[in-house]
Amino acid sequence: MDVQTKTFAILSRYPGLIHGFSTRRNGYSRDWYESLNLGMHTQDDPGLVRKNRNLFYKSLHIIEDQIVYPQQVHGDHVAYCTKPGTVPHCDALITDRKSLFLSIQTADCFPVFLFDPATESVGLIHSGWRGTSEDIVGKTILKMQNTFNAIPSNLIAAIGPGVQQRCYQVDSKTAHHFEARFYKDDGPGHYLLDIQSVLVEQLVSRGVHRSKIELDDTCTHCADHLYYSYRRDGLNAGRMMGIIGMR
Ligand SMILES: [Zn+2]
Q: With a threshold of 0.90, does the pTM exceed it?
C-alpha cells in the first residue's frame, strides 16, 4: 500500500532534504478516520494510527526514532530541537541536526515549511489563526537567524494545505486581530479570513523573497477526499502530518 504525500517542488530540488505533508489516502483507519489518520489524540484506534504513521515514515525513508513531536497549543513558542521525542508547549520547531526530522499535525491550520540551504537548517510551523495573529512564522525566522546565523533572503518557504478564505468564516473578534485587507464581509458580524495571505506577508516582511515561497492552495475543508478538516468534521477529524529534516 503506497501512501499519497504532498511535496513541494521548491523543496524537492535539494538532495538530502526530506519533506512531505500526508494526505488521508491509503491508510488503515476506517469510517470518519478513513484512512491515513496520523493523529494519536483522536478517537481513532491508536494501533491503527501507529500503523498509519509507520506507512508515512517508511514512504519518506525515515523512522519513528528520528522524529520530534511538538505538543501543540496554538501558541507562539519556537523550540530549537537537538534530539528526537516530544517537546512540550510549542507550535514551531527548528533544527540544524542531520537525521533529525521535525513534525507537526494539522487539520485546517497551515503548515509552514522553512529551509535554509546555506546553513542546512530547517523550521516547521503550525499556524492557525492564533499562532498567525502572534506572528509565529516571524518568530521562527528570528530564531533561525539567532541560532544558526540564517539569512532570511536565503530561506525557502512552503505553505499549506490549510483552510482557504472561502471556507473560513470567523467572528469580528477574530477578524480584527488582522489587517482589514486580509478579510471580507460574510454577513452581519461575520468575516472570511485569509490566513494563507497573512502568512505570505509575514514571510516577506521578514526578508524572505516572494519567489522563494511556494503555496498549496488546496482547501482542506473542500478536499474531503484528500484531507481532514476540523471545521468540517469537528471531533471526528483525523490529522495530517508535515515532516521536514536533513538526511
Ligand atoms: Zn474550502
A: yes
For 156-163, what is the mean pLDDT? Answer: 98
CA of 90 to the centre of ligand 1 (A): 27
CA of 182 to the centre of ligand 1 (A): 17
Segment 155-164 mean pLDDT: 98
Q: How far is the CA of 51 from the centre of ligand 1 (A)?
A: 29
Distance 213 CA to ligand 1 centre (A): 22
CA of 220 relative to ligand 1 center, distance in Å: 6
pLDDT tens per residue across span 81-118:
999 999 999 999 999 999 999 999 999 999 999 999 99
Contacts with 199 (C-beta within 8 Å, 6 or more apart), sequence order:
110, 112, 127, 132, 137, 159
pLDDT at 16 over 80: yes
| Cα of 95 from ligand 1 centre, angstroms | 33
Domains, the chain, ordered by start: 5-163+212-246 (3.60.140.10)
